[in-house]
Amino acid sequence: MPEVGKKVPKLKGPTGDGGELKLDSLKGQWVVVYFYPKDSTPGCTNEAKDFRDLYPAFQKRNTQIIGVSRDSVKSHANFATKQELPFPLVSDPDETWCQAFDVIHEKVLYGKRHMGVVRSSFLIDPEGRLAQEWRNVKVPGHAQAVLDAIPAK
């Protein structure tokens, strides 16, 4: 698990648009990696829309956004198209990204315990180091809080 101030792991994964994203290929810009439980669920949809709506402001701050969940590439493609998402969604069915950022934890849903993705976001600086992290995220206002953490040019 990366610590604030330390380099993040070199990760790659398939994206909903049929490509492959390599995290270390984004050096030189800020990167937001946000982990969410499931495509097309209410909270995850609202979070994606919030990042989408603020995307032009993130771009002005030289920032790339990446969404990550365990959903399939096909699910990501449908979700991104339906919600008009301008940023890539990485499919992580083997939990490589999730484990690297330590976002898989026991959760309780309707009284049942299961292992799931804890909604979390990570801000990576242009040198590839973790600048800030948010764990157990509540969706309302979160995308704006992440944007506010990135220095304006």
Automatic annotation (TrEMBL):
Active site: C44
Role according to the record: Thiol-specific peroxidase that catalyzes the reduction of hydrogen peroxide and organic hydroperoxides to water and alcohols, respectively. Plays a role in cell protection against oxidative stress by detoxifying peroxides and as sensor of hydrogen peroxide-mediated signaling events.
Enzyme Commission no: 1.11.1.24
Reaction catalysis annotation: a hydroperoxide + [thioredoxin]-dithiol = an alcohol + [thioredoxin]-disulfide + H2O
Cytoplasm as UniProt keyword: no
The protein's assembly and partners: Monomer.
Entry protein name: thioredoxin-dependent peroxiredoxin
GO biological process: cell redox homeostasis; cellular response to oxidative stress
Keywords: Antioxidant, Disulfide bond, Oxidoreductase, Peroxidase, Redox-active center
Enzyme class label: oxidoreductase
Family statement: Belongs to the peroxiredoxin family. BCP/PrxQ subfamily.
GO function term, MF aspect, one: thioredoxin peroxidase activity
GO CC entries: cytoplasm
Domain Thioredoxin: 2-153
Leader sequence segment: none
SUPFAM superfamilies: Thioredoxin-like (SSF52833)
InterPro entries hit by this protein: AhpC/TSA, Peroxiredoxin_AhpC-typ, Peroxiredoxin_BCP/PrxQ, Thioredoxin-like_sf, Thioredoxin_domain
